[in-house]
Amino acid sequence: MKPGRSYIFKEITAAILNGEANEAARLVESGLKMSMSAEEILEEALIPATRQVAEQFQGADFNIPDVLLASRAIKAGLYALKPYKRQAARGERIIIGTVAGDIHDIGKNLIALFLEFAGYEVIDLGVDVTALNFVQAVKQYKPDLLAMSALLTTTMGEMSNVIEMLYIHRVRDSIKIIVGGGPVTKEFAVSIGADAYADTPHEAIKVVHDLLNNNKKLIDIAKP
């Protein structure tokens, strides 16, 4: 007897939480062979699993190796889905990067993958991106949205520098800005003049969609 949909979804989630990248990819491929759509697997397994990872590993006592393994398992699942994703005709372009002085990229990479899967064109600038590099990228690629990440309290202030530099170069008003990362809060995002804030890859997808399609401001779409 073949396993049912709910069983596959639960097994994918378990593989991700256990940091089993190969198993996560194998289970995703099994689901696809059972005629599940890529969107169904994303919505019913990968996004819920990502949410659980974010909840399970937040706080000061989380185990970094466990986070890395879980993140790799999520990536493996997403890459297994990638050839089957429905090509969206969104047309929106997003630049994403971790600010200067910060080399953390787990959350940024996951959000970039989710955004790409959702049909957005994503240009990942990587980590330790200076304010000038962000400005140059905005001028070169003319994105609809800029996403910045920081995981350290000592580097989150760099987001404010980026926004200030965008104003100086007169390109701030041409884009929307979303920020996120471990120490970043809605209040901080408001204080530096960002348009939106999100604290998980799943939330980021919804916030970006609302921001670009409904032209909502941070106060309307960010968590209270």
Question: How would you describe this structure in keywords?
Answer:
224 residues; alpha/beta; Methyltransferase, Methionine Synthase (B12-binding Domains), Chain A, domain 1; Rossmann fold; five-stranded parallel beta sheet
Q: Can you summarize the main beta sheet?
A: 5 strands, parallel
Low-confidence stretches: none
What is the overall silhouette? globular
Q: What share of the residues does DSSP label as strand, in percent? A: 5-15%
- Strand arrangement in the largest pleated sheet: 2-1-3-4-5
Number of domains: 2
**How far do the termini sit from each other?**
46 Å
**SSE string:** HHHHEHEHEHEHEHH
What's the level 1 CATH class of the largest domain? Alpha Beta
Cα-atom radius of gyration: 18 Å
Q: Structural class of the secondary structure composition?
A: alpha/beta
Instruction: Give average pLDDT, whole number.
Output: 86
SSE diagram, text form:
Blueprint: H1 5-17, H2 21-33, H3 38-56, H4 64-81, E1 93-98, H5 106-117, E2 121-124, H6 131-141, E3 145-149, H7 158-168, E4 176-180, H8 186-192, E5 196-197, H9 201-214, H10 218-221
Parallel strand pairs: 1-2, 1-3, 3-4, 4-5
Notes on the protein architecture:
The protein is of the alpha/beta class and 224 residues long. It folds into two domains: 5-84, Methyltransferase, Methionine Synthase (B12-binding Domains), Chain A, domain 1; 93-221, 3-Layer(aba) Sandwich (Rossmann fold). It has ten helices and five strands. The chain has helices spanning 5-17, 21-33, 38-56, 64-81, 106-117, 131-141, 158-168, 186-192, 201-214, 218-221, and strands at 93-98, 121-124, 145-149, 176-180, 196-197. A five-stranded parallel β-sheet has the order 2-1-3-4-5, with helices on both faces. Helix 7 links the parallel strand 3 (145-149) and strand 4. Helix 1 packs antiparallel against helix 2, helix 1 (5-17) runs parallel beside helix 3 (38-56) and helix 1 (5-17) packs antiparallel against helix 4. The chain is globular and about 60 Å long. The termini are far apart. The model has no long low-confidence stretch (mean pLDDT 86).
